[in-house]
Amino acid sequence: MPLLVMKFGGTSVADLDRIRNAAEKVRAEAERGYDVIVIVSAMAGRTNELVGWVEQTGPFYDAREYDAVVASGENVTAGLMALTLQEMGVPARSWQGWQVPIQTTAQHAAARFIDIPRDNIDQKFAEGMKVAVVAGFQGISPEGRITTLGRGGSDTTAVAFAAAFGAERCDIYTDVDGVYTTDPRISSKARKLDRIAYEEMLELASLGAKVLQTRSVELAMRYKVPLRVLSSFEDVTDASGTLVCDEEDIMESKVVSGVAYSRDEAKITLFTIEDRPGIAAAIFGPLAEAGVNVDMIVQNISEKDYDEAHAGAVTDMTFSCPVNQVERARKAMEDAQARGEIAYDELIVDTDVAKISVVGIGMRSHAGVAARMFQSLSAEGINIKVISTSEIKISVLIDRKYMELAVQALHDAFELEKAD
Ligand code: ASP
Ligand code: MG
After folding, report:
1. Among the atoms of ligand 1, which is closest to the Cα of residue 10?
2. CA-CA distance, 326 to 68, in Å (whole number)?
3. For a designed S-S bond to 355, which of 131, 137, 229, 262 qualifies (C-beta 3.0 to 4.6 A apart)?
4. 183 CA distance to ligand 2 centroid (A)?
């Protein structure tokens, strides 16, 4: 029997009407001959509410009890979905993580899969069950405690089940109808993509296009699970949604597939630090220990081969991090300076920057993408503060007030509104 995994996010199961609507989609696939594994999120807003309650008990709560509480949201939806399917005459039952059992590490609130044994669910399929409804986001640790996978983790549960059960596809039902060339709220010309490569999706997901949890895309890429992102509020056809797949399965020949942005960035510069072996380690070691997620890094070439005041060569170091980590970063640098590990003349913080990135696997084989990007920004009078590149991505840091303009300009420059 071919098998399909269908995942429904919080807005798709926000109340009983929506659960019924989702169940109709499940029934349709079951009637087409699929065995179906349904992965559900908690009803919209429920996980936030549960997290809020835990936090109100005190600041130093036990992470194991946090997981016991926040995992419960998915349990409710799983049971209600199974009941709704049964009511429609579809043989279904629910499974909480421990019943499968979904084995994970003991890193509470950030657990990772160890194994998803198939036996229990396979046996029920063999006995005539058509739909297994599984609570997303959760598992059980080697110690037998309830674990959760980190916010947005149900996407990852869905992909892991698709890999474990050899599903034909993993359909992620959400409140948007697919993956767009950019955020439609910023550019009215944003176009839904029919297909996008795993690697492009990974870049877009980690760059702030919040459609899928990044780990779910990593997992899908590793196990080559075709992932379809589609709306639960529209009728489903073969053309629905966006297929996230292997680049070999993509015909489109666009060099750039999408423009992503990240609004809340900050830029920190250490002026006149010694230019000596070990200086980068002395800066980024303490930042890492302080939990600062450093993104872009620029080191100037030595300003002077020898600087009298510093008795050696000096340079400047600039890096970016999320804006809400600036104070942590500043403190890590001040402490390192106090310990005598680094010495800088000045630490300058710019909290009014945003990151804009163009992404596309076509960049691997096409020159000139950077030039086109920089020309189009300069034509708008936008100054580029920091640049970084990877094989399939070019990112720039610019003043935040130009973010929308930059996204629109780049979307136009690479003609992303056209389907080829
Ligand atoms: N309910 C969890 C959350 O809100 C997991 C998920 O929905 O993916 O993060
Ligand atoms: Mg989600």
Report:
1. 7
2. 33
3. 262
4. 17
Identify the burial level of 361 via C-beta atoms within 10 angstroms of its C-beta, where 0-12 means exposed, 13-18 middle and 19 or more buried: buried
Distance 42 CA to ligand 1 centre (A): 6
For β-strands 113-115 and 103-104, DSSP reports them as antiparallel
Q: Which domain covers residue 67, as residue numbers? A: 3-175
**The domain that contains 120 carries what CATH number?**
3.40.1160.10
Q: For the chain, what is the domain count? A: 1
DSSP for 300-342, written as a single string: PPPSEEEETTTTEEEEEEEEEEEGGGHHHHHHHHHHHHHTTS-
Which ligand 1 atom sits closest to the C-alpha of 153?
A: 8
Q: What is the pLDDT of residues 9-63, one digit of tens each?
A: 999 999 999 999 999 999 999 999 999 999 999 999 999 999 999 999 999 999 9
Contact 249, 363 (CB under 8 A): no
What pTM was computed for the model?
A: 0.89
Read off the pLDDT of residues 148-173 as tens digits, 9 standing for 90 and up: 999 999 999 999 999 999 999 999 99
| Any domain includes 266 | no
Counting ligand 1 atoms within 8 A of each CB, the residue from 51, 137, 170, 210 with the most, and so the one to mutate, is 137
